[in-house]
Amino acid sequence: MASRSEILIIGGGVAGLSLATRLGKSMGKSGKARITLIDKSFSHVWKPMLHCFASGTLSNENDKVNFISQASGHHFEFWPGEVASIDRENREVILSPLLEADGTVILESRRMKYDTIVIAIGSTANDFGTPGVKEHCMSIDNLVDANAFNEKFRMELLRAFANNSELDIAIVGGGATGVQLAAELHKALEIVGPYNLHAFGKAPPKLHVTLLQSGARILPAFPESVSAAAQQELEHIGVTVRTNARVAAADEHGFTLKDGSYVSAKLRVWAAGVRAPEVTTAYGGLTINRTGQILVNPNLSSIDDERIFAMGDCSFIQDDPLPATAQVARQQARHLARHLPAWIEHGQKVPGCIFHNKGAIVALGKYNGWAALPGGTVWGGGISHGFSARMAHLMLYRQHQIELFGYYRGLMSFYSDWVETFVRPSVRLD
């Protein structure tokens, strides 16, 4: 291989940014490879916290990682854009033109050479072809979506406040994203209440959130005891939980269910199902499954091309399917960071990636939380309202920051967030 290998990492999520940062230290700093991260956004956030950005309970700039700043400090390059296709014969990726909001072209379509590609573009919600979802529902798949929902949420709250009316929100999907968003919206309204009372002389409008789950229980990936406890907690804070509620169609006023009933909602969020972004169909004819995930070998290389790897939510290991979680993405990024240098420099085959399940945590804002460990052990809830589980969820986020920033800068980020709680509103107001 060439003395200075060209490594392209497509997607700056949990897996992509972690890999770029680690390879920058091991290969970029020494000049053995040029590592380039490509993402259509300019900032990274930890995806398990997107529901907090959507509700407005997180808006601090410290909670975003700027790609340009991270690249300059960790020996890799960053280019904004979206990969439109991959030319495997000439070993090039083709980037779509970069446009302003009004359609003005900032950068024309570009072509970039590669020796190795790692695809880490994450996932999106899966509407399963349900009529009306694309036209009438919002999602929180990324930071842009989360911020767009928050803007709409705040404007509709203001409208309801002025009209002395309720704000109805319906969330489709009873997995961790939907459940945590439902709780976080109520937390946001509780925080904003005193601001409204003092600024306008009256309390905020009533929030009515309906959570629609097609299956028999929410949080199906967790033990039944957690599902039952989480539903009880949601109902306690005012969320209406409807299970066995399969959506047949969406329109501008709400959802029609398969049983013929109708759920009215001013804001409609689709957080059900998981599929890879549709762009994977244009990635050089790589084999994908029915949800658009790229089929990979156990060592995360494409089954069609050993120069192309895929990890995280957009990949699928046929012999050992894994859940679409940040935990899986982190472990796969670490695996490639450890073994890609030897493959690129010496041709040593990348070994299979073995996933070590460390359990899962769900945190319902400030209200409650649970952790489910391998082997069936569950902790959380009780008189402490899952304080230890909620703190563990927060510590996972802080651990991610430390991995990206380094130990001391990561701790300083934590300290900076704490200081700002004394001088800034704890919920987004503008």
Written overview of the protein:
This protein has 430 residues and is of the alpha/beta class. The chain has three domains: 5-123 and 276-346, FAD/NAD(P)-binding domain (3-Layer(bba) Sandwich); 127-272, FAD/NAD(P)-binding domain (3-Layer(bba) Sandwich), CATH 3.50.50.60; 358-420, no CATH class. 34% of the residues lie in helices and 22% in strands. Strands 5-2-1-11-20 form a five-stranded parallel β-sheet. Helix 7 links the parallel strand 13 and strand 14 (240-242). Helix 1 (14-28) runs parallel beside helix 8 (326-346). The mean pLDDT is 89.
Summarize, please.
By secondary structure, the protein is an alpha/beta fold.
Key descriptive features of the protein:
single chain, 10 helices, FAD/NAD(P)-binding domain, 430 residues, 3 domains, alpha/beta, 4-stranded parallel sheet
What is the correct CATH architecture of the largest domain? 3-Layer(bba) Sandwich
How many distinct domains?
A: 3
CATH topology of the largest domain: FAD/NAD(P)-binding domain
Largest sheet: 5 strands, parallel
Question: Strands across the major sheet, in which order?
Answer: 5-2-1-11-20
**Class based on secondary structure composition and strand pairing:** alpha/beta
Mean pLDDT: 89
The CATH first-level class of the largest domain comes to Alpha Beta
Protein name: NAD(P)/FAD-dependent oxidoreductase
Pfam families: Pyr_redox_2
Keywords: FAD, Flavoprotein, Oxidoreductase
Organism: Gluconobacter aidae
